[in-house]
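Example 3.
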Amino acid sequence: MKPWIFLIDDEADLLQAIRDFLEDEGFLVSTAANGEEAIKKLTPKNLPDLIILDMKMPIMDGRSFAKLFHEKYDNLSPIVLVSGDANAQKNAQSINANGWIEKPFKLDELLKKIKEFIT
Amino acid sequence: MTQLNSQHSSLRATYVEPYSFNLDEDDRYQSLVENLSIGIVVHEASTRILFANSTACKMLGLCKDVVEKSYASDPQWQFIEEDGSPMRLERFPVNQVITTKSRMPSLVIGIQHSEHKGTTWVFCDAYPVLDLNEQIFQIIVNFTDITERIYLEKELIKAKTAKSRFIDIAAHELKNPIASLSAQVELTMRRLTKGQAVDMKTMEKIQRQTNRVSKLVVSLLDVSRLEKNTIKLKKQKVDVVALLQDCIQDFQLSYPQSQVKLTYNETNQVIMELDQDRLFQVITNLLDNANKYSEQKPIVAALSYDSDKITISVSDRGQEIPAKIREEIFKPFIRGDDKLKSSTPGLGLGLFISRSIVELHGGKITQSRSRNHENIFSVELPRGQL
């Protein structure tokens, strides 16, 4: 069974490029343009192997999503924060994310980060 | 000065004339002291004030008669430290001199007076006058008003903080399209290496992100040009209705989901002498903002005119812009409230650039809230002579 990755980012073009890349690499990929859309798509019986989360998004940002997700599902899916902020690592710690990667990144770097959580 | 100090009681009753060589020596000293831009206060050893010149009284915010009966700890004014905390009595210049019997190191002090709302900031210096027994006879305190300098320093710090925050925002805003570009290009190269075809959609995405980076950089350059006053308008006769239609058409190509309606009463052309590209930039910025903040509700662009001016307005039904920040949003590096700031892309330069362009045309741009709960940005441009 293919590992399932959930991408949450409002950058539609970036989302699509990562999706295409990860699908080429053999992952099952779902996407959402903001935290609210993502929360609606997730259920206790339907949780991904990894969530790749952007911080700055309209409607519901990464911080609010992470808080809500942890309240509902504890740490059932690890979260990797993707951030263009200079404080990416600090932001990741503050939302209890399991890892972080700074924008812009090389696709190989992203793949390496993913493989820390999905073997 | 010693002569002046010993005769303080007579000085109080003397009417002060501007400095004049016709006056006798005492009066000349008095005139000199009164006309100094430095405040001078002479205390006796008990800290009671024997003499204060007019400048000192002005800085303390009290009349001469009141000052010259007061003690250093007088409750009619309060000294504060540079950090804004109340100054303890032992830190008062006169008390420091009494304690050390020597000149006090220069000190910045804020003077708050009960009748004054603001603070007068002074650079203060104090030293003792000793008698033959090496005991303190008097303490001379002088201070220079540095309120304006302190204000400018604070403004400078605020400006530096704003610029630094702006660099963070600009870097962040550039990272997003660059991240998209980088991922698209890398993916394309991988697929080409594998012998797969690259479709036109991918190239369009690359072009879109390149345009986005380009727009961000142009905004940065515009701000730099506006600050250096080097933007020159290229005015020509323009049909404003056609220009608005072009703006909306262009906007809808970028945002096919958006709903924009153009309303105007005039069926003929409305010809104005304008910099077409720059006005296009202003209207596009207003439409972009309306789209960002309107929560996908319809946007209305309207054109009206009279003999003196035309008014172009862009209205959206988004969240109300609080009245207290309606002016602030036109300043560079400023965005709406924190919620909008954290979630909405952009550099926060668009309205600053738009206002500057409109003002270069001799017009004005304002923001208001209608009774129908619409945010309205209005651009008024003088019709002038064609």
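The two ends of chain B are 71 Å apart (CA to CA). Chain B is about 45% helix and 25% strand.
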